[in-house]
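Practice set, problem 2.
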Amino acid sequence: MDLLAPINGVIDKTEEILGHSPHPAIIALPVGAWAVSNICDALALATGEDRYDDAARISMGIGLVGAVGAAVTGLRDYGFIDEDQPSHQVATTHGLGNAVATSLFAASFLLRYRDQQAGRRTSSLARGLALAGGSLALYTAWLGGKLVQEYGEAVKPVMEQRDEAEHESDDENARGRERLASDSPLGAHHG
């Protein structure tokens, strides 16, 4: 019995609807929520108002929930990258970096929860962990963009479907935007 079959089925159906992996759409939730959390930390330090600490903690928790979906879909996409591909090392760094960033935010969240339960302001350690997590998340998001834009990862499955439908395959070694149709608004740029 394949325990992941229901999850894979949902992801497959989502890919069918979207025309691509759901990973790029899902990552907006943790990245956005963690950015809000970092901004709220800065506002809490600048104003001394507890409501910003609360907003930082809540948005961080939302980001952690979103990170679960991003991890599941990201691991699935990672499974399609052959180890001999140049993008594999970038994808490995992207995934490991995201695991570390999520761990930093999780530790910060737990410290914040403990501080809140004890009636204390958010500690400097909790804020520092969140800032480190946010900085790392920006870097790993850039790596994710590099995987799609430069290496064409998560683009290929959609283009393979299109090639099967149209029976055309100009360049199997094309990367990134080169894989898109020449008449596509996102197609290869010349000049």
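Problem 2, part (b): a different protein.
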Amino acid sequence: MRPVTNLDDYRAVSRPGANLPPEDSDLVGVPAPPVPSLGGGWCARAVDPDSFDLELVHGWMQSPHVAAFWQQAWSRELWDAELRAQLAGVHSLPCLVGRDGTPMLYLEVYRAARDQVARCYRARPHDIGLHVAVGDLALTDRGLVRSVLPVLTEALFEADPACTRVLLEPDVRNKRAIASFHAGGFEPVGEILLPGKVALLMIHSR
């Protein structure tokens, strides 16, 4: 992994009020996160909580390798409410990503400027953030994430021409995820403090 050399491009500013998220007026006209239209044999779709998707996501979140970093091993009822809330809003969109009709990854596509991460770096209104989980332990360490990330970021840039940056904020202890994200085209920017974790901000620019 190359040394970080661009911290000042993104670093929070130590000036009162400098790191507040964009005002609501700055986000007028910024749409909800898009469902990326993937190529290369990959497919993505929004989660449907009225289908088996709910059982799938709930089950994945109970898996120790996911729960250790997501900390969302909630009940089925709580996940039902969470997915419906995301789908009804303009902040985050829960998706399933897979191949040949088989879901392999749980993905949350979110507007970083509407998220708590916007207090940690200088967010732009159209920045898109990602939360990524490989639900099945048997599918980890097989290059899925590093393979899909370039396809995913390109699709997000195409879906939102005003978006110039896609970001990830893995827990600094999650070395497996950090290595996969870096191999998938994301550069480390610096550590940030988020509720429940110290995260490494990683960014892929258009």
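Answer key, part (b): The domain at 31-205 is CATH 3.40.630.30 (Aminopeptidase). Residues 1-8, 12-18 have pLDDT under 50 and may be disordered.
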